[in-house]
Amino acid sequence: MRSIAILGSTGSIGTQTLDVVRQHPDEFRVVVISANNNVDLLAAQAREFGVREAVICNESCLGDLRRSLSGSGVAVSGGIGALCDAVSAPDVDIVVAAMVGFSGLRPTVAAIKAGKDIAFANKETLVAAGSLVMGLVKEYGVRMLPVDSEHSAIFQCLEGAGGNPVRKIHLTASGGPFREWKREDIARAGKDAALRHPNWSMGSKITIDSATMMNKGFEVIEARWLFGVPEEKIEVVVHPESVIHSMIEFEDGAVLAQLGCPDMREPIQYALSYPRRLSLNNRKLDFGALQALTFSRPDMDRFPCLGLAFEAIRRGGNIPCALNAANEVAVDAYLRDRIGFYDIAATAEFVMEGMFFVANPALEDIFRTNLEAMEMARSKIW
Fold first, then answer.
1. Nearest by Cα to 201 from 345, 65, 13
2. What is residue 16's predicted lDDT score, i.e. its pLDDT?
C-alpha cells in the first residue's frame, strides 16, 4: 500500500486523485492533504479518508479548519512551511503535486529533498525552475511521474521505445473553446466563453490557459525538462477530439501514440501505481464509434501565448519564470473582467521584454524573478 500526500486536494486533479483512491482502497491510503482556501471541502476529505494531517495554505483560514476538524483526530496546520514539513514526513511515499501555479514550487522541492516520488501535475514548477528541479530529482534519486495527460502519454510511449532515440515529440492540443473562432471575435470574448472547454473539466485558471494556448506552451517547457529534449524537437499539433494524448516519432518515421478517452483519472492512477496498471471505472474507447481523428497546426497569430512560451524557453534562464508570473497576474485580471483576452499575451510579452536576465538562476533568483515579474504585470494592468 502506497501512502499519498496531495498538494491541492480540493482542486480538479486532487479530487480526481481521491476518486482513484476510492476505487483502490487496498492499494493507496491518503495521509496528507492540502488546500488554499476551501476549508469545507478539505475538512470533508480529511474525515472521509482519515488523513493524518490537513494543511490550509492560507493561514487566515486556519481557525476555521481547526473548528471544522475538532474531535476528528486529524492534525491541522497552516502555511506553506507547514505543508513542506508535512510532505517530508517518513510515512509519505509519493506526493501528488497538484497545486495551481508558482505556489507549488516550494513544497515540491521539499518533497524531492525528502526523497519522495512525485506524481507531477503542477507544470508551473518546471516552467519556473525546470533546470533546478530536475537537477534535484537526479541528486536525490526520486522519480518524477507525469500526471498531465500529454506528458503521461509521452512517458508511456517512451516505455515502449526500447531505448531508441526520439526524433520528435508531438504534443497534442484540443485547441480550446476558440479553435474555430476568428481573431476579432476572440478579442471580444469574455471569461464565460473562455471557460467553456469542449473536452476537459478543469479549474478556471488552467481552462483560461487552455483557451489562450499558454497551457500548451507551458507543456512544451515541461516536456523539455521532463524528457531532456530541446524545444526544436517538440511540436504542437491541434487534435480537437482529444483521443490521442501525445506521440513520439523515431528516426525512421515510425510514430508511437497513446490513446484514451479524456479522463484525467487514467494518468493519475498510472503515476500512482507505476509500473502496474490497475482497473479503472472509466469510459473506454469504442473504436467503432470513432468517426474521425483530425489534426492541424496551431495558429500563432490567434494564439500568441504559444509563441511566447517557445520564445521563453529559447531565451532560457529566468525568462520562463517571468512568463509564468506575468501570466498568473494577467489571467487573474481577465477572470475579474479587468482586461481583454489578448491583453493576457500583451502583458506577458511586456514582462518578458522588461525582465532582468539571469542565465543560470539559483532558487533565490527564481523567487525574486517571480515577485518582480508579478509587480511588472500589475503595473501594466493597474
1. 13
2. 96
281 half-sphere exposure, CB direction, 13 A CA radius: 7
Residue 201 has pLDDT above 70, yes or no: no
**Residue 380 has which C-alpha cell?**
501594466
Q: End-to-end alpha-carbon separation of the chain, Å?
A: 50
Q: Which residue has the cell 520528435?
A: 168
Distance between CA atoms of residues 208 and 344, nearest Å:
10
pLDDT recorded at residue 100? 84
The kind and range of the H/E element at 280 are none
Across the range 36-40, mean pLDDT stands at 95
Nearest Cα neighbor of 135 from 154, 159, 156, 109 is 109
Identity of residue 83: L
Q: How far is the C-alpha of 360 from the C-alpha of 252, rounded, in Å? A: 36
Residue at 251: amino acid letter: E
Average pLDDT over every residue of 156-175: 95
197, containing H or E segment: none
pLDDT at res. 197: 77
Position 206 scores a pLDDT of 86
* Residue 151 Cα distances to 82, 160, 170, 220, 248, angstroms: 30, 14, 10, 10, 11
- pTM of the complete model: 0.93
Residues 200-238 as b/e (b if ≥16 CB within 10 A, e otherwise) read: bebbebbbbbbbbbbbbbbbbbbbbbbbebebeebebeb
The grid coordinates of residue 191 equal: 471569461
